[in-house]
Amino acid sequence: MTSDAAIMRAEDVVKRFGKLEVLKGVSLEVYTGEVVCIIGPSGSGKTTFIRCINHLEKIESGRIEVNGHLIGYEEKNGKLVEDSEKNIAKQRAEIGMVFQRFNLFPHKTALENVIEAPVNVRGLKKSQAIPEGQALLARVGLADKADTYPGKLSGGQQQRVAIARALAMKPSLMLFDEPTSALDPEVIGEVLDVMKALAVDFGTTMIVVTHEMGFAREVGDRVVMMDDGKIIEEGTPEHFFTAPREERTKQFLAAIL
Amino acid sequence: MLAAVDWGIIWQRIFHPDHVFLVALWTTIYISVLAQILGVLLGLLAALMRMSKVYPLRFLSGAYVLVFRGTPLIVQIFFIYFGANLLFGFTLIPRSLNFGLFTMDGAAFAGILALGINEGAYMREIIRAGIDAVDKGQMEAAKSLGMPYRLAMRRIILPQATRFIVPPLGNEFNNMMKTSSLIFFIGVTELFGDAEIRYSTTFKPVEYFLAVAFWYLMLTTVWSLIQSQIERKLSASERGDDYTFRERMAHAWSPVTRGRGLAR
Questions:
Q1: Model ipTM?
Q2: A205: contact with B, CB 8 A cutoff
Q3: What is the least distance, in Å, from the CA of B122 to any CA of chain A?
Q4: CA dihedral in degrees (B244, B250, B252, B254; nearest 10)?
Q5: Given this model, what pLDDT does residue B188 score?
Q6: Where does the pLDDT of residue B240 fall: very low under 50, low under 70, confident under 90, or very high at 90 and above?
Q7: Is A86 within 8 Å of chain B by CB?
Q8: Confidence of residue B163 (pLDDT cuts 50, 70, 90)
Q9: How far is Cα A170 from Cα A204, in angstroms, rounded to an integer?
Q10: DSSP string across B14-32
């Protein structure tokens, strides 16, 4: 795979919740090693969009490919029909996701959270998964919390475990759904630092829904502005900070910066 | 004028129970336990069927609950004991079952079956509510890690649902111990049956039924103590100041943490 190959390609994605059209034809390509930040007001569809990328949401039309594989659907006689559960699970295993509310498994320790999927989905031996899991926890700065249950961790620590848990599957694409929105202000930094290290030191391909413009500026290769179910502007972080084109973008940035 | 009560009989029944009585007590206990286990398993199966995408499974689950919650338990007990073999045309309920170490009376078997099937209909709702009470994000997180539905259910959702299921399950078992007295009517000599038989030969209802009431009260009281212990341990983590029973169990059994102390 060449370095400019698209890892994720979304074409004209339409998503409706009942009568409400939340995605009105979204197209986006993300390339290997890229960090793409999606910004936009609440209700603009940015969270829904990244949830579609690992098929946590079904889509009405359009298509999403990750690593060249159609996500969530298979083509039958030119029509898209939902794929088998087994295939969808396989595709999801290649895509890491970090949630706004962490969603750690509360009945498992930090380390057990991290090794759960490698052992039970990939069939990795525990003797191999445990050192790998410990290394991942060390990478997010939580080597000493391996045996701690999520209930005893701070929000920032929980989110870092969640990142380690997603990384344990060695995904080719990481999705972050407002990873710092549920955190106390003083711990946001520690989570952003971990994400930054992922991007800078490991070249992880990431799509990040965020309002952290500092992060977008420092780490992001590209910023995508969504509004009312559409991508209305796309460019480098510099472009957004210096000369945003759309009036809506200017208003939004003025409100959050 | 109050009838003369022979307190000696009550004293005898409570403090010096004979062998026949102890067998009856044991019968009540093992039938209640087995019927409750059967009820939990059937309830779990029916709850999962209820949430299935396959319509016939959902329908079957609904019909099961409709029938077994909507008809009297005593009718179900009689139907299974006297009617099941005739209806199905094969021996579902044998005269007795030989388990090698012990034999079980066919009526006791029918009783367990009827009590368990009936209980399953109630357990379905309890288990479904427990599963519903688990945060939706848990299933999403499991799915996002590539876990198929069944694996996610087994590894992530059901272990967490137990904490919501255990308190009502305890109440169900309390009920079960008392309700199991109904199977006396198909000839199983459990606690109530034992009292009934002695009453019918002595015509001393006050003594024997008071004594048996005491024993039921003992059973339910002991159980409620056990139940409150379990619940206390389950809810300890909510306060965040202690490890829960399940955490300790998980810790003790986990290959990751076994042999190490619990981290603070």
A1: 0.92
A2: no
A3: 27
A4: -150
A5: 93
A6: very low
A7: yes
A8: confident
A9: 10
A10: HHS--HHHHHHHHHHHHHH
